[in-house]
Amino acid sequence: MIILDDDHPVEFKMLTPGFNWLRLGAVLAHALNGYHSPLPKGSTISTHTKHAGQMCFEGPELVHRGVYHTGMSSPPWLVKAIGEAKVASSHELDLVALAVLPHHDVSTMMVRKDLGITSIEQIRDRKIPLRVGIPPRGMDHPGGWIIDKVLEEYGFSLADIEAWGGQVIDSDRAPIEALAVHVKQKSRIEKLRDGDLDAIFDEAIMTKPWKDMTDAVDMQFLSVDAAVLKRLEAKYGARAATLPAGKFRLQDQDVACIDFSGWCLYCRRDLPERYAYLVTQAIVQHASEVEGMYPPPYSPLTSPISAQVLCTDTALPYHPGAIRFYQEQGAKIGG
Questions:
Q1: Which Pfam families match (predicted)?
Q2: Same domain, 59 and 203
Q3: Which of 79, 102, 283, 288 has the most crowded CB, counting CB atoms within 10 A?
């Protein structure tokens, strides 16, 4: 690990990949090294971004090796699975949580209602050549990876859908402006409206595109079977979740999904306690600035930040420095 010595200036490095987490990292960096910094004089704090999806898998190893002091990922159960060498890593990683920011989300599947599909098994049994939009595939994004694992439990794959004559499209999730400039293709909403897309298998359900898509086209959500959810929990620690009835237009039943909630800020267990305390404290002290970066009604942060909210998720154990801060605030680990 990069040495943190209070007798000399320190260099504190945070891995906050992607647009949402990079903004959070900027607030924390300023909070820790502003005009009244608690760090040794001359210290620097840097926040780093790489491929956001890939870093959800590779970031824990980088933090474990000491390349960065803290990392950010989602969902927390995936960080735990990586730390336990169930996913992406061949060895255990000594990681703990500092905070889990409130981000209620699920990975779910929906298809055009006019296709008459009501279950995932029907896609397999009828070998339906779906044109489906997904996150980046495989280890390029947790959302793409979990779709692979769900379909695997049903005995087929995205490659099978392509072999049946379907299409798997993982390059159309960006905002329309970005698509027009960089990818030069229509957005998912446009494709659904024009009949060029049959299904969406994805996460980030609190964002505006989900409402726009379900408002524009009649869609049918597909539940994941209870037995499949149990197997995924046994293999990877994946949590089951429910998309409640009425969340979207024409969705008249609860939908069983995979939980994708929580932005997990993690570190090595041997991060000095003072630094773990200061980072955790900074989130709460600057909660209004953090919340202000993600305005409603389609904010990825789905509830206000507080000490209690930050220590409610227990996928990972918490760092002693973070625990000390939470206890001082009257918060209870696990809620």
A1: NMT1_3
A2: no
A3: 79
Instruction: Establish if 207 belongs to a structural domain.
Output: yes
Beta strand pairing status for 219-222 and 255-259?
unpaired
CB neighbour list of residue 251: distance below 8 Å, 6 or more residues apart: 214, 221, 243, 245
Q: Which residue segment(s) compose the domain that 197 sits in? A: 106-259
Domain of 72: which CATH number? 3.40.190.10
Q: How many angstroms separate the CA atoms of 318 and 322, rounded?
A: 6
CB 101 within 8 A of CB 311: no
Amino acid (one-letter) located at 77:
W
- Which residues are within 8 A (CB) of 154 and not within 5 positions of it... i.e. 6 or more apart? 120, 121, 124, 228
Residues across the chain: 335
Let me know if residue 333 belongs to a domain: no
Q: Is 216 exposed, middle or buried (0-12, 13-18, 19+ CB in 10 A)?
A: middle
Tokens of residue 209, six digits? 């595109």
Burial of 264 from C-beta contacts in 10 A (0-12 / 13-18 / 19+): buried
**Pair 230, 141 in one domain:** yes
pLDDT digits (tens, 9 = 90+) for 150-167: 999 999 999 999 999 999
Return d(Cα 286, Cα 195) in angstroms, integer.
Answer: 45
Task: Map tokens 């989900």 to a residue.
Answer: 210
pLDDT digits over 80-138, tens only? 999 999 999 999 999 999 999 999 999 999 999 999 999 999 999 999 999 999 999 99
Q: Are 102 and 141 in contact (CB under 8 A)?
A: no
- Specify the pTM: 0.95
Residue at 271 is within a domain: yes
Taking the C-alpha atoms of 271, 141, 310 and 261 in order, what is their torsion angle to the nearest 10 degrees? Answer: -150
Helices (H), the chain: 19-32, 52-64, 76-83, 120-126, 142-154, 158-163, 176-178, 188-193, 208-216, 226-236, 273-285, 287-292, 307-310, 320-328
Same domain, 218 and 301: no
